[in-house]
User: What shape does this take?
Amino acid sequence: MTEQGDGAARSREEDVLRARRESLERLGDTAFAISLRDTLDVDEPTPTKALRERYASLPPDRREEVTVTVAGRVVLKRDMGKLKFLTLRDGTGDIQLVCNQADLDEGTFARLDEVDLGDIIGAAGPVGTTRRGELSVFVLRWAMLTKSLRPLPEKWHGLKDPDLQQRRRYLHLIADETPRRALAARAAVLRALREVLHESGFVEVEGPMLQTVAGGANARPFTTFHEALGVEMKLRISLELYLKRLLVGGIERVYELGRNFRNEGIDRDHNPEFTMLEAYQAYGDYTTMMELSEVLVRESARAVSPVMDRGDTLTIPWRDKEIDLAPPFRRLTMLDAVSSATGEEINLDRADLRAIAERHGVPVDDAWGPGKIVVELFEKLVEDTVVEPTFICDFPREVSPLARPHRSDPELTEHFDLVIGGLELVTAFSELTDPLEQRAKLELQQQLKAAGVEETHPLDEDFLRALEHGMPPAGGLGLGIDRL
Assistant: This one.
């Protein structure tokens, strides 16, 4: 836009703001209501979705005797003199309000001129249909609930600027149904996850977010300073180590749904703060966690389908594909996955792996061992291509310091990632319970850090002390809620 165009747009916006302030002054104390009860003498409005479902078969030009009360934001306004039409949007959808001068006293009808797009109002009257069959509320009483002083996205066509969508999420929610549905879907997923775990005997807990040692993952933490204690603290990067302490303490099935914080990059799949589910089951292993993962994903899909108007289906659209989330999921070892992608036999010889990486254009850091190179090959060449739900199993020992060595190959670990649609959704282990081996692995992580490897696990002495009291064999998983 030119400088002249910018100036004209600012001038128009200033005119709108001025006009709305003047309307606010005319409305006086009625511009911001205390409650719906105080204005229209009802406790709660009827959701528009409920009205549409209840009166779906109502024929055209019909008015019921039942009076309903609705409330929401005005998103459309048409003035035809003695007849005014408003479209009201609440959290469940839109409905038309028909305001006929014959149904309202002179002052009540005249005050409709103070209604602007974006205002929140309540209205009461019989429900019915217009001659064209549009379900409507024929207004007998109405009240201003909140006067909007600032215009909303132009003509309600949505907010097209992705940056503005993020910075002013409230506008995106008002203008576009998609993020509202996403929030409803997320709530349905959280309920489904909790129900599955509750029915399976898991106990929900809340671990500390401020920690002196932020362990459980190889990530950079956010740091802060606790003034009263005089110590540096870190925001947690994982839920894992405190949940394992609870296993030691005798809570045999335990989980937490909570926020983690990682002071790292931002992209499609990574955010500095995100929500994780971590669950640990005594006397299980990583195959137990595969079974639990399948149930968690399946029940999440079932919970979301009605929210997204997909009926009872486990097949979901994803970008330009469809994904079937019905178990059982495919199982594939990491070495086989990389071998298939490269067309070369994959082993854990570092020189061979470095040569393979060079042939396939995958950069390798001098400080990386063979396990890290294998994982890098997988992430660069394979992960994005895995669309159907697949357990990528048996990670190299080097990259899994908290996992138990594989029962068939000590160079590997009982560690899987569940990948769906190119996203790593779940990470799970047969948990390492030997405190001496755990110490050795974490000490090796410190050596790697000293050699220049940035992402390493810290050594947590209190966690190791807890393991020395004895932790039962267990399976554990972490599931990314935002990715799900």
